[in-house]
Please model this.
Amino acid sequence: MLLKHLADHAEQRPKLPPDYYRVRSVKWALQLDGDGNPMAQGLASLATDDNPAGFPMPAPYVYRSGMKPPPALLVDTLQYVFAMPKDDSLGEEEEANRRNDAYVALLRRWRDSAPDDPRAAAVVSFFDRARHLNITLPEDAKHSDTVAILLSGDREYVHMRESAVECWRAVVRERKSTGNAKGVCLSCGQIGELLDTIPEPIKGGAIPSSNGRTRDAQLVSINKPAQGRGGTIQLGNTPICDRCGRAMAVLNSLLADPEHRFRGSDTVTVWWLRDEQELPLGSALDRADPADVDAVYKAVDKANEDIDTAVDNVFYAVTLGANQGRAVIRDWIDVPLTEALQHVTVWFDDHRLPDPWKGRERVLPLWQIAQSCGRWDSDKKRYVDKSAPDATYSALLRSALTGVPVPVWVLPHLLHRVRADSRIDLPRVALVQLVLSRPPFKETRVSNEENVAVIWGRAFAVLESIQRRAIPDVNTTIGDRYLSTAMTRPQATLTRLFPLANGHLKKLKNSKQQSSRAAGFALEVKLKALLEQLPDGGPPERFELRDQAAFIIGYSRQGSEDITRARAAANSAD
Model:
């Protein structure tokens, strides 16, 4: 069904390249006049500062492999177009000549299929006269650089002409079809011309890799008898028709669209709708722009009002990983659009937090929440790149789109990082709140204000405020030194810090400054009120994981409330 839904989506992507074309970086251009004579002795460079690998344009492309890979029509490497060898060895020169001969033969086929196209005749005339062998290639050119052909007076390259598109379509179908009678496609269930292999792979780099090495990947690849049922290779056991084979072009288009993809460290998720409509889902989740987040809520309201739309439209998403040259489907979502959007709005509601510095509640970008599972660099004041577990981003994305709980491994890992870094910030609090808002913690009300761990978290924040007020230029706060202990052994921490807090309070209350004395009395009342809510014996000796999470919630709430009150007081004083 995946291929069918992708193929059906082709009609809704108007900027899709022609059949068996793919956006490629073309570094050089060969310019000819109307008679097939070169306009210059060399090649024109299409590379720019923004695109050093060449100008991106749709160009003929098909997956090729083997000892004698065939040429592409018109747009190919310098090895094919100008017989440029990889090196000076005799074997490489012979191989370059062989590939060039095959390239020219394909050009002749194009000319013969379009006798009324003068551009085809002009291009073939240039190569038939071997003028290409006299072109001076740039010194920095490589045999793997791609070159396109442009005729004088034309605004588009010759490979975009209708005759070239039709010829290339026929060539690819001939190369990739089974050569047998039509059959039933396993994807769409319709009778059509079956493919031997899927012509277009997933573009290299479209699926991220944790090791940084990427290459083209095939969604279906059975090239050894041991891999196929009954020893059948290629698509013998998975018959795919030509129309469904075009699904890969749609998939590559979605993978190249920032609004329709979510890139993790080792997976990528693309999404689309059966009936296309304006929906800024990508920017709402991954950038948390307030206008886009609001648009998602409005889309849910509209779908609930329009019952027909809610029933008819469907949300699709596929998560892909890569293993060598093969794509791996990690997840597949096929649900009504309303259901998917409701999951996303619940995701927003579950982690929405007050931002005291901005004076409003806000949701956070998905990537920022995932990044909070990484290691904090206190010197650079940011999270270390790629220090979070590889699966974090994709796991949180799945939770956002489907409403499933955050994986069980996330909370212990996050708590470990909080203790190791001695840092609690908005993204980490948001993730803790997400975990506690979903099973198995949702029904336990861990984050309730009556929870001893929440109360102790608030009290620890007040203890830290007392120290900061008494020693404004303190180098190492009690949060820096005791946060990890406070999360795991609260009783011992309170026993250690309470005498210190009393000393700080005494200093503040005896200060000559009225503001310091007032702060001292206010902080003393606040701390006393919180400690009185603890059991008679004080906080427990140890906290388990859920208590540590609740401690973070309490600590964050107290800090946020204190900042809000301080800013309000400062504004009223002004």
Observations:
- The longest helix spans residues 545-573.
- The first strand starts at residue 21 and ends at 26.
